[in-house]
Amino acid sequence: MTQPLFPFVSRLLAVGLALLVSACSSAPEKPKASPLPVVTGGFKVQPAWKSQLGVTASHLLASVHGQQIALASAQGQLAVMDVLSGRDVWRINLNTPIQAGVGGDGRRFAVVTQANELVVAQAGQVLWRQVLPALSYTPPLVAGDRVFVMTGDRAVAAFDADTGQRLWGQQRSSDPLLLRQAGLLMPLGDNLLVGWGGRLASLNPLTGAVRWETLVGVTRGTNEVERLVDLVAGASRQGNSLCVRSFQTSVACLDGLTGRMAWSRPAQGHQGLDGNEQTLVGVESDGKVLAWQRSTGNPLWTQDALRFRGLSLPLLLNNAVVVGDQEGWVHFLSPQDGKALQRVATDGSAITGKPILAGQMLVVVTRTGGVFGFRPE
């Protein structure tokens, strides 16, 4: 990973954002959020506890470890909570804003700060810090006594989890404009899976050597913004079956060990997916919730009653699809047909990241830092 690349990327990002702002200034007014749909009451959920973390952002995704969850705030709080009670197991203030996180293995937990620093903590104490050559939007991955990091230019590096020693780095030539949101970085067997632009790559986690690459997202745009096809965070894995989303382009399922494509279907979403052995669910950028048959990609249903409500990543439970919205509502939809079953309120600010299932507890985090535990019945 080389130092000069990131300022170049930053300038292009600024240009891209300026283009978007210019386009929005002449576009029609933002569509109004759909009114809250009538619920059937076919799902029961009870509030269990609430806590406070601090202002959060979409890059700050929680990680689940048995009956504990690890969370980070934009202001520098890193906390591990007990999901049954909502109480802190431990919490530290890093005294610097956090940009990406949290990754963990149940013992060590990693975040990346806005100062480009990779920070690894254990039992409420910082183990080590390592300066990165570029900002990261992707939660670090802690696995196999290593910490893996993907920076904004989609370079990947591995560090020793105990000492912070850099072990290897891998980088491919990047697109002229890069996506400022969490990318795909996850383990599957002895493979480290990485999203490089519209490609899914498998790396050897010990050396960084590339084993295979599969093209998932194909650009059809005419300008830099429209050609963004990065694979985004939030993949659904069932055994070797891996389903991913390419930004505003497609959803696809493939064999995560070989890269062999099972199916691909056009889709206009910008967030990840969730699923089980039979069903895959995702949210389009306009708030439509879609479900596909996992094995074939055939559409199962579409729910458009929550359009323009700024929906979160979805969570698929056995008896409900869970999504949060920009007003702090948590919606429960039928996994069979998408009908609205139930909804519960939080603090009125947007649900960030993804609803979390840890044990028998459902946890959501809001933009103003509320952490809410619910008990589905």
How is this structure best described in words?
The protein has a domain at 60-180: Lipocalin (Beta Barrel), CATH 2.40.128. A hairpin with a 2-residue loop joins strand 10 and strand 11. The protein is mostly beta strands and 377 residues long. Helix content is 6%, strand content 45%. The strands form 8 sheets. It has a 4-stranded antiparallel sheet with strand order 1-32-31-30, with no helix packed on it. Strands 2-3-4-5 form a 4-stranded antiparallel sheet, with no helix packed on it. Strands 6-7-8-9 form a 4-stranded antiparallel sheet, with no helix packed on it. The chain starts with a helix and ends with a strand.
Secondary structure elements and pairings:
Blueprint: H1 5-25, E1 45-52, E2 63-65, E3 68-72, E4 77-82, E5 88-93, E6 98-104, E7 108-113, E8 117-122, E9 125-131, E10 141-143, E11 146-150, E12 156-160, E13 166-170, E14 185-188, E15 191-196, E16 199-203, E17 210-215, E18 236-238, E19 241-246, E20 250-255, E21 261-266, E22 273-275, E23 279-283, E24 289-293, E25 299-303, E26 315-316, E27 321-324, E28 330-333, E29 340-344, E30 351-358, E31 361-366, E32 370-376
Antiparallel strand pairs: 1-32, 2-3, 3-4, 4-5, 6-7, 7-8, 8-9, 10-11, 11-12, 12-13, 14-15, 15-16, 16-17, 18-19, 19-20, 20-21, 22-23, 23-24, 24-25, 26-27, 27-28, 28-29, 30-31, 31-32
